[in-house]
Amino acid sequence: MTDVATTNGKVTSRKDWASDQEVRWCPGCGDFTILAAMQTMLADIGARRESTVFVSGIGCSSRFPYYMNTYGIHSIHGRAPALASGLAIARPDLDIWVITGDGDALSIGGNHFIHAMRRNININIVLFNNQIYGLTKGQYSPTSEVGSVTKSTPYGSIDTPFNPISLALGAEATYVARTHDMDRNHMMEVLKRAHEHKGTSFVEIYQNCNVYNDGAFSDITGKDRRADYLIPLVHGQAIRYGQNGEYGVARGDDGHLHLVRVDEVGEDALLIHDESLDNPSQAFELSRLARGPHEPTPIGIFRSVERPEYGYEVARQVAEVESKKGIGDIAALLQSSGTWTVN
Amino acid sequence: MKELDQVVIRFAGDSGDGMQLAGNRFTVVTSLIPNDLATLPDFPAEIRAPAGTVAGVSSFQIHFSDHDILTPGDKPDVLVAMNPAALKVHLSSLVPGGVILANVDAFDERSLSKAGYSSNPLDGDELNSYRVYRIPMTKLTLEACKDAGVKPRDAERSKNFFALGLVSWMYTRPIEPTIDWIKKRFASNELVREANLRSFKAGYNFGETAELFESQYEVAPATFRGGIYTSVTGNTALAWGLIAASRLAKMPLFLGSYPITPASDILHELAKLKEFGVKTFQAEDEIAGAGSALGAAFGGSLAVTTTSGPGIDLKAETIGLAAHLELPMVIVDIQRVGPSTGIPTKTEQSDLSAVVYGRHGESPVPVVAARSPSHAFEAAIEACRIAVKYRTPVYLLSDGYIANSSEPWMLPDVSKIEPIDPNFLEAPNHVDDEGKSSYWPYVRDPETFARQWALPGTPGMEHRVGGLEHQDGSGSVSYDPLNHERMVQLRQAKVGAIAKDIPPVELNDPDGPGGADVLLVSWGSTYSAVMAGVKRVRTRGMKAAMAHLMYLNPFPANLGEVLSHYRKILVPEINSGQLCTMLRAAYLVDAQSISKVQGLPFKTAEIEAAIMDVIDND
Ligand SMILES: Cc1ncc(C[n+]2csc(CCOP(=O)(O)OP(=O)(O)O)c2C)c(N)n1
Ligand code: SF4
Ligand SMILES: [Mg+2]
Asked: What is the pLDDT of residues A217-258, one digit of tens each?
């Protein structure tokens, strides 16, 4: 064995993971960099193409499986987690990714999304959040900020958006992370950790839709302002940001987390990030620091904890019953509620 | 001792009175005689209807005989009425001169008024034309349990066993099997066991010693073909059929389901049978039930989703995707009264149009229907066979009546059932211009049009399927107009080709094709009443033919030819004429609908009347 990626015994590179289909997103769309990050990461870690499946719903983002040289299903709007759940339970040997959008996962598919995480089924859900319905040409989505002017909200939207990280944490998710489409290395790291995680991994990716919602995340992702708006979450390290690390996150006297100036509170007061806390409260508080991507926003792994994985538990019950009762016999089953014989 | 050739008994009481249990135990001992039998359980629509009201009445009817019977009987000869509400609801269906076994203790003022009686019918003239036995069942039950250490309130709950004991005596049923069953079933609860045993024996002994009854009755054993028999309900037989199909195809069974009456028992049964490698998944809703099944199908499981009316609406989009992807799955619909929530516990056949036509786009789906409780076993295997062989979703229809009623079933020799070959593709089936080989997911068998199917995990066969229209062969997304037309035609032709792979419809006409004056076409659970009705008019010298459809899409290849022999065609259905409309459209025949939508199966007499009507008016 070498430490180089192999599929079916052959070394793989990013292009081995690309299908022969022409990629048809709008030029400049953030989806391209996510695709590149995914293909490169899978090549790097030596994943096996034949046991990798991408399942998606409907949306620009959901075209993703067509571009991966793996197994794939482009399914129906919102239902990818349902299909992926069945596949994961039936085939625990597979590596299953769900590719979804903010409308797909949080609007029409909200129910499947939360239940997959509650059950901790071994799938990786990657949500391309562009705060807009891209494919249907620009209506507001469940993550659009209040006041968003879109085709279906010409006077500004009035509904409160979901915070996908808060929602995932509330739904008992065991791995919850956020990254963005302008940092390939960070995306790869977060996706790799998602892949390693047993159970449902949830990754929100801030993705720019340069046609219908350009610049939605530019404060956080743009090189010029990033330092002041992107709060990196690094396990075991003080939560700190700013051009010169002059800002941070600390718990105030009121018991809540606040953005602070390090020179005012002192370094020792800064919160040390711990993604492994069993209690999700602190991760939840971190997810609430920013009310939208125009405020300093935590990026990184919010939570990564262990809990029994659903598909494994299903298989364990089956195996236990099989070993206790012996492998079922159909003829005996048909006679199991009593019989009589006629000669 | 008097001999009878057949009897219909209806146990009726409040839903808390344990009538289903009494009926089921009576069924078991009756099957041991062995009599031929058919049952019809009837549950209140609401789980917690107020006790003692007519809305809360639960009943169980059993028809048993010394000869071959098909239906649970039109009118009961004997009515066990545990309270006034039960009498109120069921009196009108009793045969004239029929027997009423009334628990007189329950006919107090309060219960009478709850049932809507202003005076006690047991005291008046209303019941003069019946043979009424006023039996203090509650009091005798309490008496029997007096020294057993059971609190009177608990002891009273054993009165269904008293009734069971009494009826067992009247119809000379063996008592040992019931005693054994009580001992086993309540092994861990001594007090309940004792109370039930004592009450059961007290009921039996009451019959013997009370000198109320002129005689006991006997129904001689029916002649059955030699074999091993059991008694099954439709839901159990269907669940077992799915398990058998999974073995026959060597594909693990996956069930994705969301609870709904009257389909839930299939989920319950399969959840128990893990020793058969079954994986059951109680999903968050019906959409996920179907979606998870489709995902499992992609992975090579024998994928099934079970539901009833409201659930099929939710599953429609997923079934359309399955038809488009051309992946096998079986959708089981245990039909109930609709639209909307309707009457959940009552039966109907009103989803036929929905399952045949109820999806957007051109989305043909084969449909198979079970005709009786035991037939659900065979129908389930057949639905799975078609799904796997043709890579298509298949609807398997049953209904509330088949689901919950039971009949004797001569067990098939499972080793003789034809295996199902999933015929998975393990090596590439395409070579491109540069000599590179790959797997094309939509390469088809020229005869069945079934596509070649490879499973994830197989190296070199990586591929994508999706809901966008795709090129035949390669499966690449294609918006080419002519390709779309071709794909629509291919998907239709594939389902159409199944007609060559199913048995021709059997014509039951003693005088040969066209001999009878009228042809009855049945499907699903109307089979038994139609068959019984046809038999009955024949005994009067009338000429009626019958054809039963197990396949509703596609129809058997010879159906048009069979219909063409008859000028009069009747199609009895528990809906407003859905199959009838389909037959008229498909074959341009003047078929007439006999419709009943009361949440109940047809009575033999209703079919008989319909046949006489059409023959008389000739
Ligand atoms: C049942 C159904 N309803 C509506 C649509 C139309 N539709 C397709 S994608 C979409 C929203 C996509 O938004 P999002 O999930 O955010 O994905 P994006 O295109 O932004 O990546 C809608 C409404 C559909 N395909 N199916
Ligand atoms: S519409 Fe927006 S999200 Fe969709 S491909 Fe174009 S840029 Fe990307
Ligand atoms: Mg979007």
From this structure: 999 999 999 999 999 999 999 999 999 999 999 999 999 999
Q: Is A257 within a domain?
A: no
Other CB atoms within a 10 A radius of the CB of residue A327 amount to: 10
User: Would the pTM of this model clear 0.80, i.e. be above it?
Assistant: yes
Tell if the CB–CB gap between A79 and B287 is shorter than 8 Å.
yes
Note whether ipTM > 0.90 here: yes
- Statement: residue A1 has pLDDT above 50: no
- Spell out a b/e string for B540-553, using b for 16 or more CB atoms within 10 Å of the CB, else e: eebbbbbbbbbbbb
CB atoms within 10 A of CB B327: 23
Assess if residue A267 is contained within a domain.
Answer: no
pLDDT of residue A5: 43
Q: How far is A50 from chain B (nearest CA, A)?
A: 5
pLDDT tens column, A157-189? 999 999 999 999 999 999 999 999 999 999 999
Q: CB of B294 within 8 Å of any CB in chain A?
A: yes
The environment of the single-atom ion ligand 3, i.e. residues with CB closer than 5 A, is: A 101-102, 130
Q: Establish if A293 belongs to a structural domain.
A: yes
State how far residue A309 is from chain B, nearest Cα, in angstroms: 14
Count the domains in chain A.
1
d(CA A334, CA B413): 10
Ligand 1 pocket member A103 (CB < 6 A): yes
Q: What angle do CA B477, B483, B487 make, to 5 degrees?
A: 90
**In this structure, what CATH number is given to the domain that contains residue A223?**
3.40.50.970
Query: In this structure, are strands B551-553 and B367-369 parallel, antiparallel, or unpaired?
Result: antiparallel
For chain A positions 57-76, those within 8 Å of chain B (CB to CB) are 58, 65-66, 68-76
Residue-range domains of chain B with CATH: 2-219 (3.40.920.10), 230-416 (3.40.50.970), 423-501 (no CATH), 507-616 (3.40.50.920)
CB B101 within 8 A of CB B78: yes
pLDDT for A7 beyond 70: no
Atom number in ligand 1 closest to CA A102: 16
CB contact under 8 A, A326 and B275: yes
